[in-house]
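quick q for whoever's on today - can somebody do inverse folding on this one?? i tried earlier but teh output was garbage lol. C-alpha cells:
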C-alpha cells in the first residue's frame, strides 16, 4: 500500500437524524481504494452498502471521519466542486438503471457530457460509439420502455462511461436482471477493469463478487473483512486527473436547456397549453385593449380637431363654479362686436343651444336648436351643402329662416323631397328652410352634430328661447395669432367690461388635453386589468412548475448524480418556465392583434396598434416566466440528490 490511495475513507460514520431518533448506519469505516482496483462490497440488506457508495460517489457526506479523493478532503469542497467530481471522476450504475424515460438510448448516454459542455455532435458520436461497443447497435433510438432490463443497464453503463470517469460505482447492477443479463453486465465490468477503470461494485451475490479482486464485507455499518483475491490487479488506471471544475460553456448549456424544456413541454401538451392560456390571455388582452383604447383616443382627438383647433369658447358662468351659470345673463348682443374686435380675433359668433321639437308635416323630431350668427360656417369651417346659411341681414330683420343639419334633412325629407323652400315648425313658429349644412359627424362625446338646426340668434331668442342673452361666444383667432395671448387679452377685456369674471374661456388645446387625460385613464384601467390577468397567468405557471418539480424529483436526483450542478438544474427549470411564457407571449401578441382587428371589423371600432404595448406585454410575459419560474427552479436546484434519488 505504498501507492497513494485514489479514494480514502478514514473513520467514516454516517448517522441519519431524520425522524426523531438518530440512526447510525456506518461506524468507523476505514477503506483505501487505489486506482485500478476492482472491489466488491458485500453485506446483508440494510447493512449500509448503499450509504457507503453514496459517500464514495460524493452524493452524500460523512457525519464523522473524513473522505478524500486524490488526497482532497471532500468536506472542503462546495456544491459545484462536488458536482464536477461526480461528473468527471465517477460513473454511477444503479440497480434500477435510472434512465430518463423520455430520452432515447443515445440521449440518455449523452446527459453527463451535457454537463461537461460537450457540443451536441461530439456527444452524440461518443454516446453512439459507447453503445455500439456495448452491443446496442440496433437499439440506439429506443426509449427505456422499449428496452430489456439488461439493455437498459448497458445504456446506463454507457452513460457512466460518457465522461471517461476513471471510477465506476455500481450499486447492485445485476440486482434487477436475470442471470443472463447479469452475466453480460459483469463481463462488461471486467472488460472495463481490464481497460484500467477502478470499479467498486455492491452485491450480495457471492458468484458476482467472485469477479472482483478484492472483497469488502460489511455488517451493521462496520467493515468485518477486507480480502484481496489471488489474481493480479489491472494496470495503471486512465485517471484523467478529474475533479476539474471547468464548467460547461454557456451556449451548450443553453441549447440543451432549451431542448430539454421543449421536450418536457411537448410531453405534457394539454397541461402546457392550459398553462400558456393564462399568459396568452394576459398578453392578448394588453395588446388588444391598448389598441382599442388608442383607437378611441385618436377618434376623440380627431373629432375635437374637426371642430377647429383655433377656436376659443367663452362660456357663461365663473370658472370652477358649477351650476351657477344659469344666473348669468350678461352675454348680450352688444358684447358681440366688442368680442369680435379684440386684437387677434378674426370672427366671433354667439351660440345658444336648446333641445327642441321640430315638426314637418306629420313628422316630429327632437333636434338641437342653435341660435347663432351669420359667421357660424366660417368660424367652424362648416359650409352649407345646399342652399345658403342665413346672412347678417336675416339676423338684423329677425328673419324666420333656418338651416338644417344633415341628419335632420335626411329624416324629415326622404329621398326626392327638396327641403329648400319648405316650412318647418319650431315651437309654434314657422321657419323657411334656406339651406342644409354639410355633414360634421360626432362630437367628442359621441353626439350627432348633424342633428341640429341653426337660426339667427335674434329670431331664436325672441321666438324659441325667450331670452335675449347667449350661452356662449365662439371665437376664431386670426391665422398665425398666439392662441394663449388672444385668450389672455379677451379675458382681461371681458372682465373689465362685465366688471366681474362671470365667464370662463376654453381653448381646444385644453379640451384635447382633458379628453386625452380621460382616455388615458381609461386605457390605464384596461392595462391594469390586463396586467392582473398576466399575474394570474404567472401564478399558473408557478403552480404548474412546482408540480413539475415534484413529479420530476427523481429525474433531478439522477441528473445531480451524474454531474449536474445546482445551477444546471435551476437553469433547466427556469428555461422551461420562461419558454412557456415566451411562447405564450408570442401567441398572445398574435391573438391580441387578431382580436383587435376582428373587433374593429365586427364592431367598427377604430384600433391602433403601437409597438410599446406589444413590447411591454411581451416583456412582461418574459419577466413573468423568470419571476414565477424562479421559485420552483430554486426548489429543484436545492434538492438533496440522495433524497431525490430515493423518491419514486
Ligand atoms: P443497503 O444498501 O446495505 O441495503 P442502505 O445503506 O441503503 O443499506 O441503508 C442502511 C440503513 O440506513 C437502513 O437501515 C436504512 O433504513 C437506513 N437509511 C438509508 N437511507 C436513509 C435515510 N435517508 N434516512 C434514514 N435512514 C436511512
Ligand atoms: Mg442498497
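ok took a stab at it. sequence:
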Amino acid at each position: 500500500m505504498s501507492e497513494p490511495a485514489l479514494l480514502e475513507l478514514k473513520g467514516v460514520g454516517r448517522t441519519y437524524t431524520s425522524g426523531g431518533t438518530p440512526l447510525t448506519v456506518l461506524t468507523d469505516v476505514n477503506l483505501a481504494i487505489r486506482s485500478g482496483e476492482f472491489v466488491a462490497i458485500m453485506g446483508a440488506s440494510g447493512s449500509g452498502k448503499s450509504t457507503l457508495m453514496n459517500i464514495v460517489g460524493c452524493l452524500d457526506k460523512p457525519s464523522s471521519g473524513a473522505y478524500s479523493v486524490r488526497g482532497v478532503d471532500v468536506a472542503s469542497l462546495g456544491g459545484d466542486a462536488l458536482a464536477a467530481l461526480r461528473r468527471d471522476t465517477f460513473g454511477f450504475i444503479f440497480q434500477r438503471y435510472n434512465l430518463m424515460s423520455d430520452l432515447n438510448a443515445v440521449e440518455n448516454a449523452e446527459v453527463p457530457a451535457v454537463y461537461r459542455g460537450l457540443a451536441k455532435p461530439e456527444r452524440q458520436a461518443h454516446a453512439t460509439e459507447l453503445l455500439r461497443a456495448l452491443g446496442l447497435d440496433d437499439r440506439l433510438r429506443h426509449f427505456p420502455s422499449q428496452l430489456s432490463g439488461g439493455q437498459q443497464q448497458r445504456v446506463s453503463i454507457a452513460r457512466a462511461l460518457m465522461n471517461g470517469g476513471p471510477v465506476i460505482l455500481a450499486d447492485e447492477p445485476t440486482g434487477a436482471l436475470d442471470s443472463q443479463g447479469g452475466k453480460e453486465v459483469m463481463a462488461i465490468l471486467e472488460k472495463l477493469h481490464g481497460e484500467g477503470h477502478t470499479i467498486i461494485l455492491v452485491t450480495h451475490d457471492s458468484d458476482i463478487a467472485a469477479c472482483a479482486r478484492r472483497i469488502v464485507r460489511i455488517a451493521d455499518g462496520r467493515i468485518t473483512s477486507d480480502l484481496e483475491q489471488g489474481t493480479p490487479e489491472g494496470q495503471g488506471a486512465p485517471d484523467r486527473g478529474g475533479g476539474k471544475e471547468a464548467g460547461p460553456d454557456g451556449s451548450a448549456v443553453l441549447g440543451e436547456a432549451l431542448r430539454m424544456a421543449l421536450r418536457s413541454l411537448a410531453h405534457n401538451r394539454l397541461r402546457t397549453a392550459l398553462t400558456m392560456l393564462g399568459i396568452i390571455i394576459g398578453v392578448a388582452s394588453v395588446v388588444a385593449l391598448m389598441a382599442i383604447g388608442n383607437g378611441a383616443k385618436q377618434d376623440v382627438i380627431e373629432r375635437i380637431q374637426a371642430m377647429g383647433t383655433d377656436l376659443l369658447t367663452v362660456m357663461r358662468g365663473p370658472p370652477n363654479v358649477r351650476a351657477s351659470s344659469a344666473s348669468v345673463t350678461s352675454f348680450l348682443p352688444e358684447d358681440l362686436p366688442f368680442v369680435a374686435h379684440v386684437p387677434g380675433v378674426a370672427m366671433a359668433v354667439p351660440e345658444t343651444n336648446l333641445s327642441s321639437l321640430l315638426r314637418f308635416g306629420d313628422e316630429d323630431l327632437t333636434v338641437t336648436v342653435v341660435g347663432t350668427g351669420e359667421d357660424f360656417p366660417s368660424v367652424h369651417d362648416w359650409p352649407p351643402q345646399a342652399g345658403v346659411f342665413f346672412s347678417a341681414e336675416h339676423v338684423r330683420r329677425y328673419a324666420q329662416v333656418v338651416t338644417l343639419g344633415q341628419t335632420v334633412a335626411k329624416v324629415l325629407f326622404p329621398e326626392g323631397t327638396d327641403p329648400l323652400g319648405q316650412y318647418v315648425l319650431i315651437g309654434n313658429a314657422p321657419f323657411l328652410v334656406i339651406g342644409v349644412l354639410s355633414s360634421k359627424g360626432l362630437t367628442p362625446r359621441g353626439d350627432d352634430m348633424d342633428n341640429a338646426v341653426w337660426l339667427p340668434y335674434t329670431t331664436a331668442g325672441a321666438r324659441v328661447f325667450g331670452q335675449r342673452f347667449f350661452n356662449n361666444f365662439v371665437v376664431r383667432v386670426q391665422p398665425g395669432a398666439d392662441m394663449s395671448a388672444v385668450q389672455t387679452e379677451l379675458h382681461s377685456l371681458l372682465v373689465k367690461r362685465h366688471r366681474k369674471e362671470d365667464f370662463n374661456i376654453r381653448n381646444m388645446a385644453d379640451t384635447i388635453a382633458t379628453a386625452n387625460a380621460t382616455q388615458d385613464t381609461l386605457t390605464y384601467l384596461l392595462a391594469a386589468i390586463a396586467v392582473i390577468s398576466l399575474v394570474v397567468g404567472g401564478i399558473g405557471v408557478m403552480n404548474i412548475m412546482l408540480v413539475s418539480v415534484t413529479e420530476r424529483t427523481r429525474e433531478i436526483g439522477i441528473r445531480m448524480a451524474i454531474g449536474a450542478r445546482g445551477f444546471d438544474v435551476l437553469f433547466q427549470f427556469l428555461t422551461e418556465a420562461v419558454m412557456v411564457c415566451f411562447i405564450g407571449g408570442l401567441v398572445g401578441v398574435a391573438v391580441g392583434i387578431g382580436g383587435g382587428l376582428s373587433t374593429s371589423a365586427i364592431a367598427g371600432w377604430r384600433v391602433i396598434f403601437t409597438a410599446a404595448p406589444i413590447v411591454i406585454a411581451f416583456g412582461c410575459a418574459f419577466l413573468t416566466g423568470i419571476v414565477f419560474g424562479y421559485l420552483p427552479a430554486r426548489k429543484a436546484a436545492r434538492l438533496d440528490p440522495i433524497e431525490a434519488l430515493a423518491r419514486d
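fwiw Confidence is low (pLDDT under 50) at residues 232-246. also DSSP finds 20 helices and 20 strands in the chain. so keep that in mind when u check it
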